[in-house]
Amino acid sequence: MKQTRASRRLRPPAFEYHGAASGAHARELYCEAVSLASLASRHGTPLYVYSAAMIRARLDAFRRAFHSIPHTLCYSVKANSTLGILRLVASAGSGFDVVSGGELQRVLRVNRRAASKVVFSGVGKTAAEMELALRSGILLFNLESASELKLLAATAARLKKPAAIAVRVNPDVPAKTHPYISTGLHQHKFGVPIPQARALYAEAAKQPYLKVAGVSVHIGSQITDVGSFQAALERVADLVRGLRKQGHDIRYIDAGGGLGISYEGAQGNFEKQIAAYARAVLAPLRGLKLHLLLEPGRSIVGPAGVLLTRVLYRKTNRRKRFLIVDAAMNDLLRPSLYGAYHEIVPVSRKSRETEIADVVGPICETGDFFARDRRLPVVSEGDLLAILDVGAYGSVLGSNYNTRGRAAELLVNGAKARVIRRRESVQDQLRLEKL
Ligand code: LLP
Questions:
Q1: CA distance 101 to 132
Q2: Phi, psi (rounded to 5 degrees) for 27
Q3: Can you give the residue ranges of every domain in the chain?
């Protein structure tokens, strides 16, 4: 198959082939100024490699797109919570969206003062998690039920620490994404239907230690049709107008995350995508004086990460060809869990010939695959492959299935690469167990 120009360029400026276009020398895939092959030989595989420049560029693009309105980016920690990534995001001035006490502790570990820009979402916050968040002085609790409101009111009163709250509404708009990651329909567990939300605001206003401060919404993830965001925010804007009329001091709208990325082919023009997203989010909010909170995860880190893996064996069963690689579903679950597509490219592009193969891991499950019947450049045993766009929901979804250690993670910054998570050993895994 002919490779398009776009796919040869991959994910500029971070992931591009360097070297001679033809002739004896292979073209080598780089992350910024660092050869991925050199990182794999030094640190082993499977190996996550992230580009700091790309993460910074994406944060900047968000900021530029929303410059017309007071706003805070609250990077969604669940997308990639490795401390080195959080530190990079914090140093760019962003806040965080957390969904557990554990995620909040990660943020505090990186920068205690970042708590003032933390929003806490999720349907099942425990009293202990609320307590940690209250003591750390977070910006906003996104409440998702009447029972949760009651517990937060009691916890805040007990600690004598006021809590700023938003109700996360469920706007009942379809997000047109994978059903497992769509959250804004009434049959989903998330948020509160808008009529019920009004009652919750009335209840919150009666609580001495709760301070009504905002309205929040998040309709799902990997959403590429920006019309869904617009539809959700139109409903939110109506609610805000109504609440203000009733005397509630709504300062924040938290528009959630969810902006999708392009997993197939090149990344396209991010500036254009983000501008369209900003228009969809901002149009319904015109005329409302407010501070906008955004919780992007995937769109910040997704394209900024690759997973390097080595081909262990080639194998053919009848006419079916397999490339057995050293990464597996415990390292990257998205293909197995959602049937997600990730582009796979050779780190060293030697051959123009292609073949159709399945790329599979060593785990004892048929669901352990990265690609099925995929046309790929021909590679040999020992060659390296890069699985693209795994910066979000890659390492965080990792597990120890089959007693496999979690992969190491590196952050590249120009010509430098830093280990931000070392490879997990079997000793690391056994440490918590007793005979
Ligand atoms: N805010 C809330 C309340 C969320 O639940 C999420 C994601 C985000 C923000 C960030 O959304 P993003 O900008 O990353 O789309 N594991 C799945 C994705 C799960 C998303 C969960 N919530 C995947 O690999 O596609």
A1: 7
A2: -90, 135
A3: 9-51+303-430, 66-296
Ligand 1 and 298: CB distance under 6 A: yes
Q: What is the pLDDT of residues 191-211, one digit of tens each?
A: 899 999 999 999 999 999 999
Helices H, strands E: what count in the chain? 13, 22
pTM exceeding 0.90: yes
Q: What is the DSSP letter of 79?
A: G
| Mean predicted confidence (pLDDT) in 343-363 | 95
**Would you state the pLDDT for residue 240?**
98
Residue 179 has what pLDDT? 78
Averaged pLDDT, 235-254: 98
31 is catalytic: no
Q: Using one digit for the tens of pLDDT, what is the confidence trace for 277-323?
A: 999 999 999 999 999 999 999 999 999 999 999 999 999 999 999 99
| Pocket of ligand 1 contains residue 335 by CB under 6 Å | no
What is the whole-number distance in angstroms between the Cα of residue 403 and the centre of ligand 1?
27
Cα gap 310→308, rounded to integer Å? 7
9-51+303-430 with 66-296: one CATH topology?
no
Establish whether residue 349 lines the binding site of ligand 1, counting it when its CB lies within 6 angstroms of any ligand atom.
no
Question: 339 Cβ partners below 8 Å, 6+ apart?
Answer: none
Instruction: List, in order, residues 6 or more apart from 208 with CB less than 8 Å away.
Output: 157
> Does the beta carbon of 260 lie inside 6 Å of ligand 1?
no
Report the length, in residues, of the chain. Answer: 435
Residue 422, both tokens: 């070392």
CATH superfamily of 66-296: Alanine racemase (3.20.20.10)
Q: Could you give the 3-state DSSP secondary structure of residue 291?
A: strand
Confidence (pLDDT) at 4 = 41
Confidence of residue 358 (pLDDT cuts 50, 70, 90): very high
| Ligand 1 centroid to residue 294 C-alpha, Å | 12
Residue 304 CA, distance from chain mean position: 11
d(CA 167, CA 176): 23
Range with lowest mean pLDDT among 61-65, 174-178, 319-323? 174-178
The atom number, within ligand 1, closest to the CA of 299 reads: 13
Rounded-to-integer distance, Cα 358 and Cα 15, Å: 23
Q: Does the structural domain 9-51+303-430 have CATH classification 2.40.37.10?
A: yes
Catalytic residue among 21, 24, 364, 435: 364
